[in-house]
Amino acid sequence: MDLYDQPCPSRRPPQRLAETAFGRRSSTYPTLDRKPVYARYGAVATSHPLAAQSGLQVLRTGGSAVDAAVAAAITLTVTQPPANDIGADLFALVWDGKQLHGLNASGRTPAALSLEAAAAGNLTRGWLSVTVPGAPAGWRDLHHRFGSLPFHHLFRDAIRYARDGHPVSPTVAEHWHREARINASLGNDVFREWQKVFTLNGRPPKAGDMWANPEAADTLEAIAQSGAETLYRGTLARRIAAHARRTGGQLSEEDLAAHESLWATPLHVSYRSHEVWELPPNSQGLAPLMALQILEGLPESDNVFQWTHHAIEATKIALTDTRAHVADRDHMDVDPATLLTPELAAARRALISDRAWTPPPEVTAPKNDTVYVAAVDANGVMVSLIQSTFMGAGSHVVTPGTGFSLQNRAAGMSLDPAHPNRAAGGKRPFHTIIPGFLTKGGSPCGPFGIVGAHMQPQGHVQLMIKMLDQHANPQTALDAPRWCWTSGRSVLLEPQFSNLADDLRAAGHDVAISEDLTPFGVGQIAQRHATGGYIAGSDPRGDGLVAAW
Prior knowledge:
With 549 residues, the chain is α+β, with helices and mostly antiparallel strands. It has helices at residues 49-60, 65-79, 115-120, 135-146, 156-164, 170-186, 192-198, 214-226, 229-233, 235-247, 253-257, 286-296, 304-325, 342-349, 455-469, 474-479, 501-506; strands spanning 18-19, 25-26, 37-39, 43-46, 89-95, 100-105, 166-167, 210-211, 262-264, 267-271, 274-278, 369-376, 382-390, 436-440, 443-450, 483-487, 490-493, 510-513, 523-528, 534-538, 545-548. A 7-stranded antiparallel β-sheet has the order 3-20-19-15-14-11-10. Strands 9-6-5-13-12-4-21 form a 7-stranded antiparallel β-sheet. A 3-stranded mixed β-sheet has the order 16-17-18. It is globular and about 60 Å long. The two termini are 26 Å apart.
């Protein structure tokens, strides 16, 4: 039986949709019922249609799937800045045709950061929250190892859209308005440059508004021409460090010059005769692996409530362990491999009962915006790439003349002096973003991913259940309703899951039905098809699509 030869059992009749001021569907919940895309030669799936087309154009002009994924990621910094920017971090999994490689392109905290300064200041926004941007170095390093086209070729669309403008898409507009409200509440002079760059005379753009960022175009041109060196050891690095000195920041030229990406060996567990792959710490890739390992040892059930309850509990336990132990690999108290042992999985599985478990109170759901790209090509190269400035627009710190916001990844660090992820200088913080990859018997199936802070591991688990337990195709797996554990015993359900609410409440879950799409993430999947080529899907909760040929 082919992995995707059965439809998901639950289908919904069409519903009439209402439009908000942003062009977003609301009031009545949207019908999530797209059709999968089949491709012979390659595909790029991501959350913005212009970025997907950028990747496809690269594929059709001789680029590899890595070239396409990088081109899409660069374009997304222009078309989706409330979710990621040039000042972001990046993680990637690459199947090169023979084996899987992992890239950790996350930056470190400034060397001068101390736990005392972090505790006394603001790790959420502003300079204390800033870490070295890793994404541009990640673009370069992915291209250097796996690319086919010249590096500057991958920037063409992004530079054109930044200089000449592009129309803002509906979901991006909604997130942009949220970030503008946050920026207006910050009040410090250091945040005013963000408003200058990212608003239209003080007003965030609406859906359909033409948006240009010529300063970002100049920055992208400099990164393209220098192979990203300008950001780490050149003019751009000096400009950012000088702005930090003038305005109270700790990020220095030495911090930027010391940055390097880390090639990492991916981790995996077996689930339903497949191998699910994630990146090791400092990412939270252990969380979905731990949850799936717990679920693998439970008896399969056709009872939707029981299996949903078990999945919530397994994910909750895994996330609790992940938040307790994961940090910069050089500072962890345990070997990540010990968190994936059968013995630990069995011990954690024993915590699952017919009642909802209550985790420690400090384990809560951080919120962020992220972008994800799945790209595949005719030579069998497949890429799972994720990129983010963390909490929306990140730190809201913009160096004048650069056109981009720096990330606020230090916000992911702990103020507990006993925690391995405690705030300190020169460390990679705990990271929420995780690319996923699926194989079977060592042969590649393909990339998958979903955005949204600690919704990401929950989304990975739910996608695997849909694809491997219910044999749903990639698009149907993305269409399916989701749940999201937030903290304690609190769980959000999409409206299509409301029929489970009473049973989950009876089991001790604190359930709320959410008509807001945001907490449930936006995903993309591209997988090999049994008859050749690929089958791919793009989440209807976002603006994206699958661009294929």
